[in-house]
Amino acid sequence: MKFNLKYLALALPMLAFTINGNAQQSCPKWGPYVKTVGMGKIKAELMMADVMFPSKGIAPFTYACSVQFGIGKSGGYCGIQQAELNQPRPGNNIFSVWDFPNKVQIRAQYKDPITFVGGFGGEGTGLHSHADFGWKPDHWYTNIVKRWTSNDSTTFVGYWIYDNTEKTYRHYVTFAIPEKEAMLHGDIGSFLENFADEQKRSRTAVYKSYWMLTAQNKWAHPDSLVAEAGDGSWKAEKFGDDGVRVTSCGTSPWQKKTFYPTRQKDRPDLIPASVYDMASYYDHSQKKIFVNWSVLPTATPQLSYTVNIYDNSAYTGKPLATITGTDPEQYSVGTTVAGMNLKKQNYYIGLQITDIFGQQSEVKKTVLEEKTP
Predict the structure, then answer these.
(1) Could you say which residues form the signal peptide (predicted)?
(2) Final residue of a domain: which of 202, 237, 261?
(3) Do 232 and 290 fall into the same domain?
(4) Is 355 exposed, middle or buried (0-12, 13-18, 19+ CB in 10 A)?
(5) What are the residues whose beta carbons fall under 8 Å from the beta carbon of 268, sequence distance 6 or more?
(6) Which site from 32, 88, 142, 194 is most exposed, i.e. has the minimal number of CB atoms within 10 Å?
(7) Which stretches of the chain score pLDDT less than 70?
(8) Residues near 210 by beta carbon (within 8 Å), at least 6 away in sequence
């Protein structure tokens, strides 16, 4: 009996040390990381994937990267983040791109009013943005990265989120990167990160619906996903037909690298591109026709536009003027028309947009006519 009491007295502090030790060492050294398999050689125009924080898996200082990507000679990542719990600021997103080998500064071409842009370091250097858009637990968010060319030395890369509950798109930021025709490339990666929580609490994120739009405007998806992490306690589970649920810390036993077959349609479910409304007017002082239009948040986002102005109601023949551009935030253009005489005739204006998914809208039409009192 004396031996048992002595053993118990020794075992209790050892048990406490072991529990505390596991609490501090039960997290993987890196990851968990989820990656598509077999898509690394695709040159892509667009990448996207869905992410969700389940309400029972939220911990402070958690980052759930949804799309880690290569872009030209560099790369970047985007996703959603939880900072401190019960903080007054809503949950945010992140979009970051590392500097390029030529050392030419990356710059922000566009930012949403709630988006902040600044530099980052500590893991290389580059340009970073975040927006406190207020994600909600148990809601899915599609993170979309789209590239397009500006000129002979610059490529744009933009970041959108589709809120699967509200069914709305929002453009948060576009960076201008210093490389000609920089394509998106590499397998799409996602990871779950504890970036500042010293208690190393358990945290969970769910990922699904990985897609690429190739340079040939064809949709591609993986046949499988792979989940892995560094030494430490973590877990991955198949989620639906095309996803993986990952948990970092507090799981037992530790999991090994695991592959998950996926099953997806030939293309994602997208509504057609559309223009909500348009109008036009003639500015007599500038002698210009101005055309403006709108695209609803529930519609697929605009990437480029073409405006044609005709002298006939059939909208046929060679246009009197054509205005084209590639700009997701351009919804108004102006142009002169040679020999224009609004008092003698009407002018017939057609608008067609192409969305970020390569879909063209139907032609929206309006008539410009002389207005009289």
Answers:
(1) 1-23
(2) 261
(3) no
(4) buried
(5) 48, 209, 211, 219
(6) 88
(7) 1-25
(8) 36, 48, 49, 188, 221, 222, 225, 242, 262
Rounded Cα distance, 7 and 82, in Å: 45
Same domain, 216 and 339: no
| Domain encompassing residue 289 | 277-368
- Helix or strand run (H / E) with residue 4: helix 2-25
Name the one residue in this structure whose structure tokens are 């479910």: 269
* Same domain? 145 vs 292: no
| Of 264, 49, 242, nearest in space to 161 by CA | 49
Looking up tokens 């090994």 gives 256
- CATH number for the domain spanning 65: value is 2.60.120.1270
| Residue 49 and residue 99 in one domain | yes
Phi, psi of 158 (to 5 degrees): -110, 160
Peptide linkage before 32 cis (omega within 30 of 0): yes
Peptide linkage before 253 cis (omega within 30 of 0): yes
Contacts of 253 (CB under 8 A, 6+ apart): none
The pLDDT assigned to 209 comes to: 98
State the pTM of this model.
Answer: 0.92
Residue type at position 173: V
* Residue 250 and residue 101 share a domain: yes
- How confident is the model over 325-364, as pLDDT tens digits? 999 999 999 999 999 999 999 999 999 999 999 999 999 9
**Based on the structure, what is the number of domains in the chain?**
2
Q: Is 143 in contact with 51 (CB distance < 8 Å)?
A: yes
Q: Are residues 192 and 331 in the same domain?
A: no
| Amino acid, single-letter form, for residue 183 | M
CA 328 to each of CA 163, 228, 263, 355, 358: distance values in angstroms, whole numbers, following the listed order = 18, 37, 32, 8, 13
Q: What is the DSSP letter of 274?
A: -
Distance of CA 194 to the CA centre of its chain: 21
Kindly give, in sequence order, each residue whose CB lies less than 8 Å from that of residue 25, ignoring residues fewer than 6 positions away: 232
pLDDT at 270: 98
CATH number at residue 310: 2.60.40.10
The dihedral built from the CA positions of residue 215, 206, 66 and 358, taken in this order, carries a sign that is: positive
